[in-house]
Amino acid sequence: MTLNSYSLGIGDRFGQEGRSQLRALQLGAELGVHVTPVWNKSNREHIIIGSSPVDTRREADEAVSAAAWYAPYCVDADHIGLATVGRFLESSDFFTIDVADYIGATPDTEAAASYVRAMERFLGDLSIAGIPAPIRVDRSLLDKVARRYLSAVRAAGEVYRYVERERGAGTFVTEISLDEADEPQTPAELLFILAAISLERVPVQTIAPKFSGAFLKGVDYVGDVSRFAREFEEDLAVIAFAAKTFDLRRDLKLSVHSGSDKFSLYPEMHRALRKFNAGLHLKTAGTTWLEELLGLAEAGGEGLRAARHIYAESLRRYEELCKPYLSVISIDQFKLPSVKEVEAWNGLEYAAALRHDCSDRMYNRDFRQLLHVGYKVAAEMGPRFISLLQEHRSVIERNVTENLYRRHLLPLFVGEKHHQNLR
Ligand SMILES: [Zn+2]
């Protein structure tokens, strides 16, 4: 299984928008930018919605056929481990092995010693093309990687070998994710984590580190953009070096999780990808359902009533709905509009508060984040919500395609210059 140099996590909470997401990728392909779609839905999301991995596969296959999509696509078992991978085996061909829980677990002493011995040849100043100053490799760095990450890499190996036994080698894409760790990994640490992965013989294709700054769901990056840009470049340099130096796949690439809506980063990321001629996997954060909500609000009538109801319920059940997402949202409760205010908004005002357009003075990032986790309320509406989506298909699809194409694909993969020419 191979991915294009660029790949993008797509799919949506309710499995309705695959075709309009593919439409965005088809528009990209018309500009010569070929992006592999990867349907991803985490175990957490399946549990909250009450869906199963088989549903995601079915939706992907149907959307691909309806959209006449002839290029490869994948279905991702997102953030799985040994305990949860089972029900994804049949329907997935991309496995995101989440090892965050094993970070910092004490490794086997002999394994740690043999890892450090194997890495001794890098002691000293290590020059890597694309990084201005050499990386200082000393024992404390190697010891730290062994101590913090070796158990995690071992755990990834176990999951990989299990999937390989069940599915057969070469039939799936392997990603390792460290992004839900407490601490970010430095580029130097990433390099030696990749060395450990090669010794574990996992043919990893995408790796998701935790970057500095906050990647919250549905809103822009919070942190120092220029610092991120430097770190991102160094990670790309490290990945290129690791792919040549260790026994790893040559098409190894970086994966960015919760990567949708990070508008302040895309110009920097685009520039760095060009500079290193590097690939990227960008996972989106399930925000497509917000485009559905936008569409319903814009449609007015029953659609707007449902959108208001979902907000009122989300506000009432604030604690419960936010709980599973506490580490990836940051809501200022004082800035949330009251139910009464929202009742007074017309559809366009509701949509303007929700749509991620920072230049619109109605835009409210707290409102947007709360609705993002409020999908459980929509899920509980069951067939009524789905039939509203179907009824207002055209306005929703326009929002879904537009959001993915104009706000994501163009600035990230095509670049601002081209982006401006199209405006
Ligand atoms: Zn993640």
Architecture blueprint of SSEs:
Blueprint: E1 6-10, H1 18-30, E2 35-42, H2 43-49, H3 53-66, E3 74-80, E4 94-98, H4 109-119, E5 124-126, E6 135-137, H5 139-167, E7 173-177, H6 187-199, E8 206-208, H7 225-245, E9 253-256, H8 266-276, E10 280-282, H9 288-299, H10 301-316, H11 318-322, H12 339-344, H13 347-354, H14 365-373, H15 375-381, H16 383-391, H17 393-414, H18 416-422
Parallel strand pairs: 1-2, 1-10, 2-3, 3-4, 4-7, 7-8, 8-9, 9-10
Antiparallel strand pairs: 5-6
This protein binds zinc ion (ZN).
| Helix-and-strand structural type | alpha/beta
CA(first)-CA(last) distance: 36 Å
Largest sheet properties: 8 strands, parallel, barrel
Counting H and I runs of at least 4 residues, what is the number of helices?
Answer: 18
Mean pLDDT across the residues is 95
The level 1 CATH classification of the largest domain is Alpha Beta
H/E element sequence: EHEHHEEHEEHEHEHEHEHHHHHHHHHH
Helix content: 40-55%
Task: Explain this structure.
It contains 18 helices and 10 strands. It has an 8-stranded parallel β-barrel with strand order 1-2-3-4-7-8-9-10, surrounded by 5 helices. A two-stranded antiparallel sheet has the order 5-6. The longest helix is centred in the middle third of the chain and has 29 residues, at 139-167. The model has no long low-confidence stretch (mean pLDDT 95). The protein is globular, with a radius of gyration of 22 Å. The protein is α/β, with parallel strands linked by helices and 423 residues long. Zinc ion is lined by residues 79, 177, 179-180, 208, 257.
